[in-house]
Amino acid sequence: MLRVYSSLIGIIVLLLPAISLLSKKVRLFLYHRKKYRNQIYGFHRSRKEKLIWLHCASLGEFELSKPLIKFLKTNHPKLVLILTFFSPSGLKSSTEVEHIDLVGYLPLDTRKRVGQFLEITKPDMAILVKYEFWPNLLFELHRRDIITYAISCRFYRNQFLFYWYGKWLLKLIQSIDHLFVQEEKSKTLLERYQFDNVSVCGDLRIDRVIENASKSFSNEVILSFLGSSNCIVAGSTWDKDHEILLPIIGKKFSKIIIAPHDISPDSISSLEQKIHVPYEKFTCPNPTNIHKAKILILDTIGILSMVYRYAQITYVGGGFSKKGLHNILEPSSYFKPVLFGPHYKHFPEATDLIEKGIGYSLRNTDDLNNVIDDLLENPKRLSHIRAETQEYLTKNEGGTKKVYQFIRNEINIG
Description:
single chain; globular; alpha/beta; 7-stranded parallel β-sheet; 18 helices
């Protein structure tokens, strides 16, 4: 099956330049890879120090990796650390981390391209974050005896890996030296398929959001917008989320901060057309009128996780799409009630918060109204949420340190 996959991926790679003539997205995909390829190809590996290659698909995976990166480079400053991405959103934010020695894109998954990358970088260890199980990459890492870990993974019974047509990839995943999974269910499932290389370390995002929430943050635009008003902060929202949220303005909350997941000009323009109350955009506010605005559109990236601290109640988007709920742990790190849509079954943290009575799933605006009424009219409920959330985070933190200690011992870096 690997040969069939390799043939198909080879054909796709050959067709990409032609497809790029018709697709701006594919054109940018190829452009960014070409732009950073020379940095990788110009890299000269010194064997004096250990080299770890860490790969993240995108921004979310990079965020959860930051505490581990900090652990590695703080305790082993001479360690060489290479970071790669599949998506440009992560790479754009990688400049924030001072500990990275080289940044680039994951090579397209052909044996030749992966082989060239590994031959140039010669990593002592590869760390794959979450679900980056590229078949030829796994094959080449195993063939070259490169120590490989996968961190913060989750597996569930109806994944294609556990059906007949996915078993070939599951076998390649089994060649990974060690998998750090988020929950006991994942470990138990893998053990049924003869995996003996699995540890439970929890969701590493928890360490990251706790670290993030501890940082000081103040913003004059947001403070001018809020004044003394209470607000709801809605993060990573989509059109369906906006349909549910916009009707509550002026009824339940006088102020709302909306951070759309897509901040492209077309997306922001579409949101603006749906708003029928005074509003401002974060990147170009009117200082004279901002205090009169009912809505502040956060048309930028990188600060949402900090902005949640200003909310009395938070809302996280993506729960009305089967593509998935966005990060609900970020607002939880400020011990705030978290509201989201009905599609959360594949997100154990959402199930945990609902079971503890500190997270709420909504189907429509009526549900939103009822939950807000219940929260605002019951101060004891808010106190309970604060205490329960704090206990939940404290109980589940520390996974990054466990991973680091395992890595340190295995690679013998000190």
